[in-house]
Write a structure and sequence with these properties.
69% helix; mainly alpha; 2 strands; single chain; 362 residues; two-stranded antiparallel sheet
Length: 362
């Protein structure tokens, strides 16, 4: 964790100092080599670390879920690549750019800035926003200001007599006052995004992929699919939990229980399974960790196809399938535990109720 804080935090602090100095004095604080190192760390290394380590591959109610909707990730990744390439072109290019390339370059910088604000809201984590998105936004603002100043310094004579209509319009936009200029550049962002969208539709993306990449997710800032996780209980006895939702005459629900703050239906099979794990965790912790880590993979599969496993007939079949395991768990409890039935009945109680039960069953 300390290494991650240094990895993310140090570039952010250095860029913040540089940004404040730039706003006050109009000059970058560090030399070209240091600036390039910070830019590579901020635009390439840290986003790659996040996407590789923290961005889930699928929408998952319980595990590491996808930051961007998996079917629409191509749009997001393509836009990230375009924004990064455009930034480094703007930062490293020292020559004189024509008005039209300058307009396109600055429009993409504005797209990058707004895009980063949306990503910061999607991730919705203070640590990542402060040390990930905020430095990128500061670098983009400095680059926009630098581009504006450079163009004014190098193109103060106006367009040449042979300049075409587009070049003349672009020159006029670039010579506007900053706030008016930014308004025009924002408008020009729309056709640029339309071109990117049209190109990516060739590769299976949708016209609304830019929006759905953010909204078709679980537990993120713009997520609109959180309701699909409402009835999913995580970190429990997945198969027995499914089995307890079958037809009442078969699975024989006994009472409601509390798991991770959610009410669940408990039958004897589920109570026995949880009591067995409780006993295993108490008496054989290493074995319990080994089994639980592997059993969680079963849970990941169930959560992925949760609505299929929520069908009562499927639950009935799972209940019957789990009967031999239930008998083995019960036999183990009676062989190892002094008061197996007491342990069984205490499962999935409210913590306060369980403490009371422990007092009376000692």
């Amino acid at each position: 964790m300390f290494i991650l804080v240094i990895l993310f935090g140090l570039p952010a602090v250095l860029i913040l100092i540089d940004f404040i100095n730039f706003i006050v004095s109009g000059r970058r604080l560090y030399g070209p080599g240091t600036n390039l190192t910070l830019e590579i760390a901020t635009f390439i290394v840290l986003p790659a670390v996040y996407l590789f380590l923290f961005d889930g591959k699928v929408n998952d109610c319980c595990g590491d879920t996808a930051t961007f909707s998996p079917p629409h990730k191509l749009y997001i990744y393509t836009l990230i690549i375009i924004c990064v390439l455009n930034y480094f072109y703007s930062s490293l290019h020292k020559g004189r750019s024509g008005p039209v390339p300058e307009v396109i370059k600055n429009s993409i910088l504005l797209i990058s800035l707004v895009f980063n604000i949306f990503i910061a809201r999607q991730i919705d984590g203070e640590f990542l926003w402060l040390f990930g998105n905020a430095p990128i936004i500061m670098l983009l603002i400095m680059q926009l200001i630098k581009n504006h100043r450079s163009f004014l310094a190098l193109n103060n004579e106006g367009p040449s007599g042979s300049a075409g209509f587009m070049e003349t319009c672009a020159w006029k936009i670039l010579m506007l006052k900053p706030f008016i200029k930014i308004t025009f550049l924002f408008v020009l962002c729309l056709p640029l995004l339309s071109i990117i969208t049209a190109f990516l539709m060739i590769f299976g993306q949708k016209p609304d992929s830019a929006i759905r990449a953010f909204t078709d997710t679980y537990r993120q800032g713009f997520s609109e699919l959180d309701h699909l996780c409402d009835n999913v209980a995580c970190g429990g006895h997945y198969l027995c939990s499914v089995a307890a939702k079958g037809h009442k005459k078969l699975v024989k629900p006994r009472r409601l229980g509390l798991r991770n703050g959610q009410l669940i239906t408990c039958n004897r099979q589920l109570l026995i399974a949880n009591a067995f794990e409780d006993m295993l965790q108490e008496k054989f912790p290493a074995l319990h960790r080994y089994i639980r880590n592997r059993y969680n993979k079963v849970g990941n599969y169930i959560h992925k196809y949760y609505h299929f496993f929520n069908i009562k007939i499927v639950s009935d079949f799972t209940y019957i399938l789990m009967k031999p395991a239930e008998w083995i768990f019960l036999l183990a409890l009676y062989c190892v535990d002094e008061k197996p039935e007491n342990r069984i009945e205490k499962q999935y109680l409210h913590p306060a109720d369980r403490q009371i039960a422990d007092l009376y069953t000692r």
